[in-house]
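User: Response regulator. Structure?
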Amino acid sequence: MAKANILIVDDEPRVLEGLKMNLGREYEVFTTTEADQALRWLKKTRFAVIISDLKMPRISGVELLNQAREISPFTVRVLLTGFASLNAALDAINLGGVFKLLTKPSSPPEVRQVVAQAVQAHQSAMDQERVEKHLDLARRAQEFEAIALGMSKELSGMALQFSAVLYAAADGQLSQDDIEDLRWVEDRLHATVDRLAKVEGPALSKVKAESVVGLQTELWERSGRLGSIGLSYKSDFSGALSIPTSVVEQGINCFLENAVNALQGADSPRIKVRLYFCHFMEMACLEVKNNGPAMPSYVTNKLLESPVKSATGSGESLYLLNKVLGQFGGKIGFRQRSNGVSFMMWMPLHASENSSAYMVTEQF
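Assistant: Predicted structure:
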């Protein structure tokens, strides 16, 4: 996974050098003594965090961070200040423009902790933005389908009226040309009704879960993030789903992230990923099982009921993922096992799929 970009602005080069040495192993660190340069970078590069000294020449750190917020709203802002200007810095935080305050001097561990929190806040904001886009896409798809259905009904009524006119015209009150014209219109109306009846919103397009899950699992194996954790993938489902590809990707990545975190320090850590058809739910199921410690039911339930804060952000991610899935008729669940925990994501089939075609055992 690519390192998060951190932008640091201070008029003291030695401060910049020290911060870059402290943070450079975990993040891509950009440093500058010029506020104008920082603003130019913000317009061209996505930064997770910007850190600025309060006292800058020509422009204060507070003003710089306010401008940064206008340019890049999701970049989290951290303010550096000496003890003498602490009150002014606190005022800046109270105004809502600053996420955290770092005093000079701050110990390297304290700096790393604040930056880690800021990066996590940035990721949570980006996750929320993606969720809102998914929800908006779902709403637009539903509105689109409702409009299509309404048009279909209206056109059906019009076609019926034309049919009645044609029937009444059988007594010769209309010329043959008029009748032919009406038949042409009737045919076009019926064809339009048929097309509208088959219209699908963008959120309900076919998604091949097998290829999406397989690709994401392969990327995790190649990323180096698994360390000594063994990972296996099995697919017994090759059908299509009616949820966006991005939601399937979000699900497998969220589950694997949680599994990796749960297995830190475990003996012979293993993760099994399986995609199959769940007969009980009549949906496709993505199951990610790890052999880490068990999770009490009250903990797993809370993860889905509210955006629980955690050091890794896993609680928030699961809550948001479950919220998105609900818009498409899916859901998340957990299963406690004697040797670990399974995370499950149930995903609705595409309308063209026949659930009776899947007769695979669900034992994992």
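The radius of gyration is 28 Å. DSSP finds ten helices and twelve strands in the chain.
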